[in-house]
Amino acid sequence: MWKNLPLFPERASALAWQVDGLYFLLIAVSAFFTLAIFLVILIFAVKYRRSVHPHPVQIEGSLPLELAWTLIPLGICMIFFAWGSLIYFQEARPPQGAMEIYTVGKQWMWKFEHETGQREINQLHIPVGADVRMIMSSQDVIHSFFVPAFRIKQDVLPGRFTETWFHTTKVGTYHLFCSQYCGTEHSGMIGQVIVMEPTAYQAWLNSEGATGNLASDGQQLFQQLGCGTCHRSDTQGRGPNLAGLFGTKVMLDDGRTVTADENYLRESILNPGAKVVAGFKPIMPSFQGQVSEESLMALVAYIKSLSQPQQASR
Amino acid sequence: MATAVQTVERENYLNSNYGIKSWLLTTDHKRIAMLYLVSITAMFWIGGFFAMLIRLNLLTPTGDLVTSDTYNKLFTMHGIIMVFFFLIPSVPAVIGNFCIPLMVGAKDLAFPRVNLLSWYIYLLGAITALTAMVTGGVDTGWTFYTPFSTTYSSTHVIGAAVGIFITGFSSILTGLNFIVTIHRMRAPGLTWRRLPLFCWSNYAAALIMVLGTPVIAITLLLVAFERAFNIGVFNPQLGGDPLLFQHLFWFYSHPAVYIMILPGMGVISEIVTCFSRKRVFGYEFVALASIAIAVLGFLVWAHHMFVAGISVYAALVFSLLSYFVAIPSAVKVFNWTATMYKGSIRYETPMLYAFGFIGLFTIGGLTGIFLASLGLDVHVHDTYFIVAHFHYVMVGGMVMAYMAGLHFWWPKMSGRMYPEAWAKLSALLVFVGFNTTFFPQFILGYMGAPRRYHAYPPEFQVLNVLSTAGASILAVGYVLPMIYFLWSLRYGELAPPNPWNAVGLEWMTPSPPPTHNFDETPIVTWEAYDYEHQPQEEVTVGH
């Protein structure tokens, strides 16, 4: 048990340094205040002990002191607030063109699917030096995707997509934990993130030999479910044409405008009446309970793929 | 053998009446405080027993002591019992119940029968929750996150939820009683500015009890309804929203942290002034800091949800407000420290616990600043860093304060002195044991060890073993007072009315006080903590 006693997690993402920097600053400031308070109490406790200081001097208080120890800590806190928020905002904004990993959490495993169709369970192979965006949802309860070496964590919810991203900087194998308590085998819902050299990653992709990919699975489903009868590839359909839809602003029949992102597509499949596109009737049936979480991801990936040429031209 | 001179025992609240009935039907706030003391002590040992099993299981990375299902039930029941059945009632229902009427110079609380009712409700809630635990347990975590609790858990969720629901009413009634008592029953001359800070902080906590508890009651009822009748409130498959639960749950459960810590802060204000023989430094600031904490405490709940999938702008606002709520707590720590300046300091057990409180609460509070910081919280959320942080606040802070208060007011409550040397030893053991248990967990947390794990990667073992070792020291530190307090009931020296030479009204009546508290209603003509005008007594008691 003594063989291996790390006291600090590895740093394997671009953001890890920033998080650690803020952590070190906070430790320094906290240590300063803790020691200062301990020291002052110790000095008072010794210097003013009953045996040498039998007659206390009554002091009411001091407004300048009160203001000082209200405003100075508040000012220092604002530095932490600003720095912490800057990191958080970076975490919330994945860069354009990041590779996407579709992730399903379920009791008690992680399922990943690469854009090129490779699937894995509780292991995630990714290249070093890449931006990776995780698009995640849960099939049952709330889970949380946590890779300490990347300093990122994001809850994975049933009923919607959540996302997070990271930029890998170091080849290695890192812990993947589910950090939101999810039932009996919560502590078994763990895995590995394997960061590889790009060439090794390519070799791994080839050796896995995917049959089709997520978007093509989605296309098959799209046909099986008969979506195409209304969502035709011209303007004559009873539903909107989906080509080029993803990522654009959509005008709704109640006057609102929403961006057609993954969560919008998802909601429109499961609860089509919630946001109806202007000029169309709310006639689409709900697919709630008819498509699994993975099928939903495939459908969303397929609809996204219909916008690919446009994305390439950007 | 006890050959102490037996004076004719005067009548007091303990000997005025004997028999089970005189206790179970009492409306005397002092007796009800004792009923609470016995009940929450029982709950503390049950919760502590679960904690010990948790720590023992974590000695090995593979979690060999219990199965994962049992482990999940253990941490759930540990959390439920300690939060709802020990910490929330601890200082208010025991020390507050006993001391507030005495401190304001009243004969009793405003509604004595309601006070007794609150204890029966507490008991009913506790029995309900314990029944759920004995008949199979519950495994949702004390946080009851949906949809796990409403749909997926196959344990006794409804029983535990109903137990907490019921107990909430006892909390509301106690809070109501305190608010009305402090408003309406203060002795002549006892203005708000002369009120002991213990009353101020219990008043602030009572506001939260009355305003916040109904929200957790509704939330748990909705969980029970969704579970029993498939009403879609939280489960997305039924059309609900799982995050709605988290908002509702933390809307109460974050302020509940302040229900737990505020009364403890009040205890510390009483003790630091008494053992420094000084008026408190910056009375208004300490008093108003309690109110500020109570108000701001309602506005920070979503800092528990920074990685849950809320909007980044909402997170920004809640992060900012979380820094604001930290400031009044810091102000209190600074004022307590300044109170000692040029004092005349004694180191009896209550003061040792108060030192411990200030030190541990400072660490607990400062690590809270880490968690308010968005980018850092993402990494440490739901790890052992959080576990360490809230134990520093709840155990290092609140339980230390509760122990400080028990030792401080024990002579008043029981009429007996406890053995000082043993008490000092136990204070030291608690301090050392606590730090050994929980400091390693900060390191574990930053390394990424997730909480609520029955088994863990082997590289986390050394720190876990250290933590378990510390927990055993801590356990001894808690067992000792249990023994010597009981021992003192029979063999302890008789306590004088004012063993610490303190200035509160509660010390101006005999120990233990008569049933009606004061022979004459006191008239207050002095400021709080007026140690200047109180004659320095030469005789200190009993050690």
Structural write-up:
With 314 residues, chain A is of the alpha+beta class. Chain A has 3 domains: 16-92, no CATH class; 99-208, Sandwich (Immunoglobulin-like), CATH 2.60.40.420; 214-313, Cytochrome Bc1 Complex, Chain D, domain 2. Chain A contains 7 helices and 12 strands. Chain A has helices at 16-47, 63-92, 198-208, 214-224, 262-270, 293-305, 308-313, and strands at residues 99-106, 109-114, 119-121, 123-127, 131-138, 143-147, 152-156, 162-167, 172-178, 191-196, 249-251, 257-259. In chain A, the strands form 3 sheets. Chain A has a 5-stranded mixed beta sheet with strand order 3-2-1-5-8, with helices on one face. In chain A, helix 5 crosses helix 6. Chain B is built from 15 helices and no strands. The two termini of chain B are 17 Å apart. In chain B, helix 3 (68-103) packs across helix 8 and helix 8 (242-276) crosses helix 13. Chain B has helices at 20-24, 29-57, 68-103, 112-134, 148-152, 157-184, 197-229, 242-276, 283-296, 312-340, 349-372, 374-380, 384-414, 420-447, 461-491. Chain B has one domain (20-508): Up-down Bundle (Cytochrome C Oxidase, Chain A), CATH 1.20.210.10. Chain B is mostly helical and 543 residues long. The chains are: A alpha+beta (314), B mainly alpha (543). Chains A and B meet through helix 1, helix 2, strand 7 and strand 9 of A and helix 3, helix 5, helix 8, helix 9 and helix 10 of B.
